[in-house]
């Protein structure tokens, strides 16, 4: 009899799509199938409208919560249909949900996409709301993926650094010394500022291969002003989100300049901000010859990857494809793993990463048929 299947759902800060994967963890990790479900433009607009305070928020939140639950369920059903996997073969779905607030300094975070709806429409037990138990234990509730990185990617021969570049960027430090704890934290913006800036000026959802950024010139004064933001020098554990890194912040920084810059030069500066903040975070750990592996949407940005390779010389920079897992599916697989841990009554957080008082089981379970 085959080992049970787990499904992971991830909708990140970039708001581009819902990633769904079907995986097994026994006897070893196996990616069985994957699917990317686009987020309709109307829902995308409503998500963006919830990212900041506004009128009638509770009504809008309740409706969007249900709509996203149905959209997550649709992603699961398409994944099953495309792969031939039957619902009764799936032990559980792990759904990250869509983050609309992440306020660790205030002790709360909120991800929506009603798991009751997912469980009802798919008939599959669904695990969701992974972050708040860690916060209740004094943690940041993020990042949670380093625990999965540790389980899947740790090496006894090489120091490894996993860099997830989604809307935000976070890194995981995996030292070859197995006695050293896994470390991880958010380094700052990943794609979020570049995506928002090109959307504002070219109505494009992202800068393909960083081509627009590559055609501009970095503005040193703007870059220096951005890098003095206290977040970058704070010691981990730390996490962040759109509450800090958004177009309003970029425009505030731009207004400090002596003259109005070209939009393309701001884009070039934002790419460097991401690359430099990631590089400085890695350098702070003084690792011996680490190998750096990128994952997430930013791993496809050729300009960003080249800049990281330049800044991190002579260390090797590649993607998690070299470790056997496509960089597009790492985060979704992580939430399948967190569901696997929850169903088996095992912890899902790493206290050294989030700052929680100890290991905790994560997620609430919504039973299926």
Write the SSE topology:
Elements: E1 5-11, E2 17-24, E3 30-38, H1 41-50, H2 57-83, E4 90-103, E5 108-112, H3 115-122, E6 126-128, H4 131-136, H5 145-153, E7 160-165, E8 168-174, E9 183-189, H6 192-202, H7 211-214, H8 220-227, H9 230-233, H10 247-255, H11 263-283, E10 291-295, H12 302-311, E11 317-319, H13 330-343, H14 351-354, E12 364-366
Parallel strand pairs: 1-4, 4-6, 7-10, 10-11
Antiparallel strand pairs: 1-2, 2-3, 4-5, 6-12, 7-8, 8-9
Structural class of the secondary elements?
alpha/beta
Q: Work out the oligomeric state of the chains in this entry.
A: single chain
- Report the total helices: 14
- Fill in the CATH topology of the largest domain: Nucleotidyltransferase, domain 5
Radius of gyration over alpha carbons?
Answer: 20 Å
Under CATH, the homologous superfamily of the largest domain reads: ATPase, nucleotide binding domain
> What ranges have pLDDT less than 50 throughout 5 or more consecutive residues?
none
How would you explain this protein's 3D organization?
This protein is an alpha/beta fold and 369 residues long. It folds into two domains: 5-141 and 329-366, ATPase, nucleotide binding domain (Nucleotidyltransferase, domain 5, 2-Layer Sandwich); 145-315, Nucleotidyltransferase, domain 5 (2-Layer Sandwich), CATH 3.30.420.40. It is 39% helix and 21% strand. It has 14 helices and twelve strands. The protein has helices at residues 41-50, 57-83, 115-122, 131-136, 145-153, 192-202, 211-214, 220-227, 230-233, 247-255, 263-283, 302-311, 330-343, 351-354, and strands spanning 5-11, 17-24, 30-38, 90-103, 108-112, 126-128, 160-165, 168-174, 183-189, 291-295, 317-319, 364-366. Strands 1, 2, 3, 4, 5, 6 and 12 form a seven-stranded mixed β-sheet that branches. Strands 9-8-7-10-11 form a five-stranded mixed β-sheet, with helices on both faces. The protein is globular. The model has no long low-confidence stretch (mean pLDDT 96).
């Amino acid at each position: 009899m085959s080992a049970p299947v787990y499904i992971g759902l991830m909708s990140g800060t970039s708001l581009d799509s819902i990633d769904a994967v079907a995986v097994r963890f026994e006897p070893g990790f196996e990616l069985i199938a994957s699917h990317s479900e686009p987020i309709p433009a109307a829902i995308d607009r409503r998500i963006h409208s919830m990212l900041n305070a506004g009128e009638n928020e509770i009504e809008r939140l309740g409706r969007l919560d249900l709509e996203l639950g149905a959209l997550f369920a649709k992603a699961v059903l398409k994944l099953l249909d495309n792969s031939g996997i039957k619902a009764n073969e799936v032990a559980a779905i792990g759904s990250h949900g869509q983050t609309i607030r992440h306020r660790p300094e205030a002790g709360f975070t909120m991800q929506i996409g009603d798991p009751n709806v997912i469980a009802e429409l798919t008939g599959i037990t669904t695990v969701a709301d992974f972050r708040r138990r860690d916060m209740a234990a004094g943690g940041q509730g993020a990042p949670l993926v380093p625990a999965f990185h540790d389980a899947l990617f740790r090496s006894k021969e090489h120091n490894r650094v996993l860099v997830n570049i989604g809307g935000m960027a976070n890194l995981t430090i995996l030292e070859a010394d197995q006695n050293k704890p896994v470390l991880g934290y958010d380094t700052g913006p990943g794609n979020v500022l570049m995506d928002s800036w090109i959307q504002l000026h070219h109505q494009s959802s992202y800068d393909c291969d960083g081509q627009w950024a590559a055609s501009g010139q970095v503005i040193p004064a703007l870059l220096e002003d951005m890098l003095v933001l206290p977040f970058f020098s704070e010691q981990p554990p730390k996490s962040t989100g759109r509450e800090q890194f958004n177009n309003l912040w970029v425009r505030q920084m731009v207004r400090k300049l002596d003259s109005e810059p070209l939009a393309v030069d701001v884009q070039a500066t934002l790419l460097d901000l991401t690359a430099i903040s990631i590089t400085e975070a890695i350098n702070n750990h003084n690792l011996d010859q680490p190998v750096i592996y990128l994952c997430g949407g930013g791993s496809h940005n050729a300009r960003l990857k080249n800049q990281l390779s330049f800044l991190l010389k002579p260390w090797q920079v590649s993607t998690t494809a070299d470790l056997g897992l496509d960089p597009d599916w790492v985060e979704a697989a992580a939430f399948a793993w967190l569901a696997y841990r929850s169903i088996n009554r095992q912890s899902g957080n790493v206290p050294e990463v989030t700052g929680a008082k100890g290991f905790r089981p994560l997620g609430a379970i919504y039973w299926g048929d």
